[in-house]
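Recall that a protein's primary structure is simply its ordered list of amino acids. Everything else, from secondary elements to tertiary packing, is in principle encoded there. The following example makes that idea concrete.
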Amino acid sequence: MKHESWLAKHAASLAGKTVAVSGSTGGLGKELCRYLAHLGAQLVLLDRNQERSEAHERALTAAFPDLSVRRIPLDLADMTSVQKATEKLKALPLDVFIHNAGAYSIPRALTDAGYDNVFQINFVAPYYMIRELLPTLRARGGRVVAVGSIAHRYSKSDAADVDFRTRRAASRVYGNAKRYLMASLYELFREEREASLAIVHPGITFTGITAHYPKVIFAIIKHPMKIIFMKPSKAALSPLLGLFVPTEHLTWIGPRVFDVWGMPRKSRLHSIPKEECKAIAARAQTIYENLKCKP
């Protein structure tokens, strides 16, 4: 197990704890699940690709024979899938929900719920799930760990174009969705006393989300990227630390060197004004209420 000395200092046993992880088969998700299994957690793998999820489960149980694993299908671009997965999670003794899944540069489309798919995957669906799971988490003194991104700095929210469906720059569209996720959760948990929140970010790491360049260009740059960017095993320490260190309003956990590289630490966040946080939270509440009203 990599980073054993760090784990010994900053982590603790998760024996008896049920931890659900979205995007569990991605580069960051795989490494995070290995750490969780090492610490004795009971895992719930949430992923849209069931073949990869099954393979991931086999690899985990081969490495950790005593591991308890469940698999729940989850496609964040499909609200029916999101609602079904959420109901299954409500039936479990859930202690931690880690929202790790994300989508960056993908073909754009409107979802059945009426939102830009990048916005739904990165904000609408996880926000809905967290709102619905709060009573379960409160009952167990549980925690939400949400993976944000430094990309939230690339956009400022726009009330006239909430999901940025008119924008084309992938960094801004993705950044807007992450800005919504982070700001809405800060406000949602601001007065929360029974469950807790950790907003985390992995910095820059080489995972599937970075493989959005044209194939020819990516073939040239992927090897230097692997050298320059943090390995997923190191980047996954930020969301892992979120299980043990909560974040107060407008603080987050991430790499200590310019927010992009190094071991994780908690720091203040200065890039989302308090008034914008409140405005985003109000829009998030409306989005949630509209979803609840739909059959």
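Strands lie at 18-22, 42-47, 69-73, 96-99, 143-147, 196-200, 251-257, 261-268. The CA atoms of residues 11 and 244 lie 7 Å apart.
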